[in-house]
What we know:
Elements: E1 10-14, H1 18-30, E2 34-38, H2 41-50, E3 55-59, H3 67-76, E4 85-89, H4 94-103, E5 107-110, H5 115-152, H6 159-173, H7 178-190, H8 200-203, H9 211-217, H10 220-228, H11 238-243, H12 264-278, H13 290-302, H14 308-323
Parallel strand pairs: 1-2, 1-3, 3-4, 4-5
Amino acid sequence: MSANPATPATILIADDDEGNRELFAEILRRDGYEVVLAKDGAEAATIFANKHIDLALLDVKMPRRSGFEVCRIIKGNPDTRLIPVVLISGLINTNDRIVAIDCGADDYLYKPVRREELTARVRSLLRLKQFIDDLESAEGVLFSLALSIEAKDPYTEGHCTRLSKYSVGLATTLGLSEEQRGALRRASIVHDIGKVAVPDLILLKPGRLTDEESGIVAQHPIVGERICQPLRSFSSVLPIIRHHHEKMDGSGYPDGLKGQAIPITARIFTTVDIYDALTTDRPFRSAMSPKKAFSIMQEEVDRGWLEGRLVDQFRALMVDTRSNR
Length: 325
């Protein structure tokens, strides 16, 4: 099972024993899989770098590179780390199994491997990979949709990239987890995806919006959350999408959350989003200098709209960034 269900999955078998290679190959070819063979770890690593592989069966003890080394290479590369890897050993060694887990292997088998067990494990891991591939495809569609919305407005060019840089930088300074930083990276792209439901006449209007038009725009966080909600991997992104227009005094939208009730990731996102809006050219004004932007943001802190601690931390971060150029 590959990314395209009509195409048979391609399985790499790496073993320095020709008999083992041919045995595994015969079993898997009989089940309809494409098979690629490698006689040692170095050849296996080269194949991975140059050919699409859906799953790898790696012997633990191989010349030039061991199965552990090849597994680390695969799992250490963002482009291949989700490809299932099964390590196979001729020796029952508890320590090797621990090393395999540490390498990121998805399964560990002992020789001799029974045909039924091999095909069941391969089928299960490829099914899981298909779920992951489908998830990535769905995320790709959402990202493309979000970026197409950004592209409608020439004044927002590069907005998503800057928000990712600013928000992750601030989150890192504050000691937030990798999961929270990852949510901010994703939110940087999809935070305004709900604007797909806002007519272009409103979205691109150069002048002040009417109350009715403002009400339509104010629904976009709810629409965006609804669009992204089916993806379970977006669970930590949804609060940012929904709440990045809330204000500390409760006067924001869509829920009027107040203070610490607003998720920290959403508060970070609001801070950097406002800064980027102020320091970017708009139809009705030129971009402000960072100094002027922070002056206005401080006024919003004084009004109770923004969190002063975050504005101060972000100002210090931006000063450090400029001074290190």
